[in-house]
């Protein structure tokens, strides 16, 4: 995510890998003498694996695919729909399990059979199938729901789902799924998506992946999108309203841009001009970080003011940025590698997403005749005097309300610039490439990056990382800290 300047607050994302084998003990039911299958059936945990946002995600299963079919009225923000998800139970049979859903549930089935359900809290949907789901087995859940998503506020500091009369943007980080579909909302549980959004005929709905079909039936038109690569739930999204859509092909892949027609004609052209840079930026990134992870590309510019842009997989979301766009497109496209295909395992590591996206912005500038990474690093370092509160945040564990604070971006990016200074440009390039290659289509942690760097470049780096990421003071201007005498 990148915040509009002047930066106030932002979003980007990550997660916890559900260990299928580690979900057992929660709410175990059944007497010792009961039939074996029933005795071992448990209630899947309502909590996910992240200490920062424990209500996001659930225990006992993993989702492999979501089919979402929502009807959205952009004039009023009324939403009704159905999510059908395919999942696989963990090592325990499930007598009941949870999904994350802020909307009002109307009906639930499990493998086609009606199931009982309840809303123990605003965030949770508890589902009890007629018979327990067997351990390790695939199962299908269908949930019907309705509501007015923009009225559903988050219990955390991070609200997603934005609506203004005539236009809706379902975008957010670290949470957004439960506002428009029934989700296992953890970045660790990646799944493929088949997303149909029905809007009044004459309006448009845009999401990630490829546009499969647009079907008019009377007053409503169904826009169907498919994301064929597994992505984290917060990276799925839609916008709905009046959008101009332009399609092209670049480097053999379909590219689709959409810009809100609530913007002026001049602004619409400015937005398309900015989006048009996408293929060139992706080409440059592929030469550095390896293959672009998705089969489609593009971008969406909404007139809804969110205060941030977001790296939605394959087609980032941009709130109208006016003249302050800067390198926001570079930033969000960098996240396709750093944040999307290599997703966070835990939200405390947002520096891994935002530090890299910031560093890549600096690399882009350096590679295009603008300021060098070293100059940017030095000037940022100098701009934050030792007494600045900028240095007070522990970037490696900022706390749930600070995961998108300026130091997570800037100090994270500075650390990577300093690392390049310390180990040299070519080893840095190889290290970054090795990081992406190792964690592509998966997740990573800050600790894993530190360990990989130390394994390649020497254990002495552990002090370097500690100084930059853990210590709440300004690193000294030394060669060991990558601030002088670059290799
Ligand atoms: Zn970002």
TrEMBL record:
Keywords: Aminopeptidase, Hydrolase, Metal-binding, Metalloprotease, Protease, Signal, Zinc. Residues 1-24 form the signal peptide. Its EC number is 3.4.11.2. Its cofactor is Zn(2+). GO terms for molecular function: aminopeptidase activity. Residues 325-468 form the Peptidase M1 membrane alanine aminopeptidase domain. It is an enzyme of class 3 (hydrolase). SUPFAM superfamilies: Leukotriene A4 hydrolase N-terminal domain, Metalloproteases ('zincins'), catalytic domain. Pfam families: Peptidase_M1. It catalyses: Release of an N-terminal amino acid, Xaa-|-Yaa- from a peptide, amide or arylamide. Xaa is preferably Ala, but may be most amino acids including Pro (slow action). When a terminal hydrophobic residue is followed by a prolyl residue, the two may be released as an intact Xaa-Pro dipeptide. InterPro entries: Aminopeptidase_N-like_N_sf, Peptidase_M1, Peptidase_M1_aminopeptidases, Peptidase_M1_dom, Peptidase_M4/M1_CTD_sf. It comes from the Bacteria. Belongs to the peptidase M1 family. This is Aminopeptidase N.
